[in-house]
Specification:
This protein is mainly beta and 406 residues long. The chain is built from 6 helices and 29 strands. Keywords: Kelch repeat, Repeat.
């Protein structure tokens, strides 16, 4: 009997042992919210997330039905922050005028600022936007960016990225017409330009107009991944490429197996690798995860998958290489949304980062510990500053302090 009990104890101990796992999907539990009895973001789609430091920020989104017995639709005019250390979602109080077209907009983070562009209100397409808003994620203040030049038309479902202090926007829809135009906003001069060839020959190839596409950049070339219209989705066998120096389109043929056509998928870029996950082809939703090499044009299907097929979700990646996937439509038939968030490491991080992940694993209530005690225990300030503490100085919890001192 004793040997069986000892065996059970060993199994429980092994289960609690921290193991770093590459390319393994993990569900992130909002245990801090449950412990404190505070709300989490409601299920949504069409939102965007960005990652800064130890936080994931979720902005906007849409749900078709608010409560039972109502037919109302809601756009979420709100900014949430998930702190990875405390495992807690927090609804942030911001100042200034917030971006108001809250579905299928674009968002990126640059130097502690979240830049938001485009999007639509309800009904979709009737109140679209071509405005640019910036939220300072330190002060939580919104400002509208005043720009000049040739703005894109008011659309939603565009794709956007930042490169060399310039913001590139590709594609989108008005709700009726679709685009594959490429626009560039110089973030220093605040001037918009449309990038197009001077040679207007009808023989110049360009890809089909589309929305809910995703893009990446490599050696001054923008790669376009998927997207579609209300009636079709585009494939990944050939990837459209836009050269930002000569403003010309071409396409590259990919090698090996490639993803099925889709739109409304998640996408992140990590160096010369691009990862896509989930999506929708008009009748089928996906849960697969693929990696594309921007040097070799080779697709690789990962063994990891999302727990359930989703689309209209959002994905972002940390500088350390941790992928986050949040929200989305999780049932085509029921038309339901989810508010679950998943994570996966795309590369092996630094030893310091791996040690920090181990600390968070063994100390799930680290946000309740006094900052001074954490520093005395040898935890660097850069990681202490990533913690969303329960109080300004933390609250010493005997159980956690025993772990620190052991």
């Amino acid at each position: 009997m004793e040997s069986r009990n000892e065996s059970d104890r060993q199994k429980r101990k092994l289960k609690r042992t921290f193991k770093f796992r590459l390319n393994k999907i993990t569900k992130l539990q909002p245990s801090g919210n449950r412990l404190k009895g505070i709300d989490c973001p409601k299920p949504r789609s069409g939102h965007r997330i960005v990652v800064m430091g130890g936080n994931v920020y979720a902005f906007g989104g849409y749900t078709p039905v608010v409560e039972e017995n109502t037919l109302s639709h809601v756009l979420f005019k709100e900014l949430w922050r998930y702190n990875c250390a405390s495992k807690t979602w927090k609804l942030l109080e911001t100042t200034g005028k917030m971006h108001e077209t809250l579905a299928s907009h674009c968002a990126v983070v640059v130097d502690n600022h979240m830049i938001v562009f485009g999007g639509t209100g309800i009904p979709f397409g009737e109140t679209s936007s071509n405005s640019t808003y910036i939220c300072n994620l330190d002060t939580l203040e919104w400002t509208s960016l005043e720009t000049t030049g040739s703005k894109p038309v008011e659309q939603y479902g565009q794709a956007m990225l930042i490169h060399d202090k310039k913001m590139y926007v590709v594609g989108g829809t008005t709700g009726f017409a679709y685009s594959i135009e490429v626009h560039c906003l110089d973030l220093e001069t605040k001037e918009w330009k449309i990038l197009e060839r001077k040679d207007k020959s009808p023989y110049n190839w360009e890809p089909e107009p589309r929305y809910r596409l995703e893009i990446a950049i490599h050696e001054n070339q923008i790669f376009v991944f998927g997207g579609g219209t209300a009636f079709e989705s585009f494939d990944f066998k050939e990837v459209p490429v836009f050269d930002i120096e000569n403003c010309s389109w071409s396409k590259v043929s990919t090698s090996s197996e490639f993803p099925e056509p889709r739109r409304c998928h998640g996408c992140v870029q990590m160096g010369t690798d691009v990862y896509i996950c989930g999506g929708f082809d008009g009748s089928v939703a996906f849960k697969d995860i693929w990696k594309f090499d921007l040097n070799t044009f080779h697709w690789q299907k990962l063994s990891a998958t999302l727990p359930t097929p989703i689309y209209f979700h959002s994905a972002a990646v940390s500088k350390a290489g941790q992928l986050f996937v949040f929200g989305g439509v999780d049932s085509i038939i029921a038309n339901t949304r989810t508010n679950e968030m998943f994570s996966m490491w795309l590369k092996i991080p630094s030893l310091a980062e791996m040690c920090w992940q181990a600390v968070l694993h063994y100390m799930p209530h680290i946000s309740r510990i006094d900052k001074k005690k954490l520093y005395q225990a040898g935890i660097p300030f850069q990681y202490i500053n990533e913690i969303d503490f329960d109080s300004p100085n933390g609250t010493t919890i005997a159980r956690c302090c025993n772990l620190l001192e052991s």
